[in-house]
Automatic annotation (TrEMBL):
Listed Pfam families: ECH_2
Taxonomic classification: Eukaryota, Sar, Alveolata, Ciliophora, Postciliodesmatophora
Recorded GO MF terms: 3-hydroxyisobutyryl-CoA hydrolase activity
Domain Enoyl-CoA hydratase/isomerase: 24-341
Protein name, UniProt field: 3-hydroxyisobutyryl-CoA hydrolase
């Protein structure tokens, strides 16, 4: 009891938890910001993970419409000197979850975006529902898919699909999420309350997951409908230019939409994302997080023009005008620029334990 009281004094009300005989249920509780993760929340999650008794660890959002809308990106441009520490805490917390010896679960209801997905993908199990809207849209804000995406997208059953998601930030439904292999289970929204009640006392999280899991209809997945073309375009390519060439030849509605979508994104981000994906194919989870940290430091701190401009326009000024990226076009992004972002020559660096 005394240990719990000491722990409570260091916790943020933006992350709450309840302990049950066989489960600790952690709730992201920042509903007005759709549960986007700020520094204080990440510190609290880290404490709760570190102090979790020998029981299932479950993480959910406080509102059905959002698991987490990502990281608190506005805070990173308001206090740029905090960027290295913010991302260090974020990735260290994700790695803590990944290393847990007990069963871990993320319940992805509603929006599941960016950093929130890093937390979710560190869990052993992930539930999607009919309300799930999963995306890694960082190329649209001058960053790249990070928080372990260079591992979890490169290790999907379909490497072509992983690259497609890495470059486009395509929004996935709960059905899509299950059939890509990102979600391990699909549970209908109406069953979630009963599911939560059952895991509070069950000795086996997997047994409860299997009890409530309902196989979604594969034919209803829009992503699966396009899988053949995704494999044709994004499979077996060595450069981003090859992808763009395939998209622009023998046009189809899917190719045209995808080409247009990529061309709207930050050119530097897209080039770095492609290289990050290729490097991630040979990395383990820890190495991928350390690799992602280098990119975060470079694009959000050292060379942050695109990131700062995009966050200011989209989330501070909230204007819909087109962002003027630097460089403006993909063909202006040099290999040297990309390599500098990946190497992070000035540091700091992340060394996870």
């Amino acid at each position: 009891m005394e240990r719990l009281q000491i722990l409570n004094r260091h916790l943020s009300p933006k992350v709450t938890f309840e302990d049950f005989p066989n489960a600790r249920i952690l709730t992201l509780n920042r509903p007005k910001s759709l549960n986007s993760l700020d520094y204080e929340m990440l510190q609290t999650i880290s404490l709760l993970v570190d102090q979790t008794p020998n029981k299932h660890f479950v993480i959910q959002g406080s509102i059905p419409k959002s698991f987490s809308a990502g990281g608190d990106v506005v805070a990173t441009i308001e206090n740029p000197r905090m960027v290295p520490e913010f991302y260090r805490t974020e990735l260290s917390t994700i790695y803590q979850i990944y290393k847990q010896s007990t069963e871990t679960l993320a319940i992805l209801r509603g929006f599941a975006i960016g950093a929130g997905n890093g937390v979710a993908m560190a869990c052993k199990y992930r539930i999607s529902t009919e309300t799930t809207r999963f995306s890694m849209p960082e190329n649209s804000i001058g960053l790249v898919p990070d928080v372990g995406a260079s591992y979890f997208l490169t290790h999907l059953p379909s490497k072509a699909l992983g690259l497609y998601l890495m470059l486009t930030g395509k929004v996935l439904s709960g059905n899509d999420l299950y059939w890509t292999g990102i979600a391990t289970h699909y549970v209908p929204e109406a069953s979630i309350p009963n599911f939560l009640n059952d895991i509070k006392s069950s000795n086996s999280l997997l047994e409860v997951l299997n009890k409530y899991h309902q196989l979604p209809t594969r034919e209803d997945s829009n992503l699966i409908k396009n899988l053949h073309e995704i494999e044709q375009v994004f499979g077996d390519v060595n450069t981003l230019e090859e992808v763009l060439m395939k998209l622009s030849s023998n046009p189809t509605p899917f190719k045209e939409q995808t080409f247009a979508a990529i061309c709207k994104l930050c050119p530097l981000s897209v080039k770095v994302a492609f290289k990050s994906f290729k490097l991630g194919l040979s990395k383990n989870f820890k190495e991928a997080l350390e690799h992602d940290y280098n990119i975060e430091v470079q694009l959000c701190y050292r060379r942050s023009y695109n990131y700062t401009t995009a966050i200011t326009k989209k989330f501070v000024e909230k204007v819909k005008e087109e962002i003027k990226w630097y460089p403006e076009h993909i063909n202006q992004v040099t290999d040297e620029m990309v390599d500098t972002i990946i190497r992070n020559p000035e540091g700091p660096f992340l060394h996870l334990q």
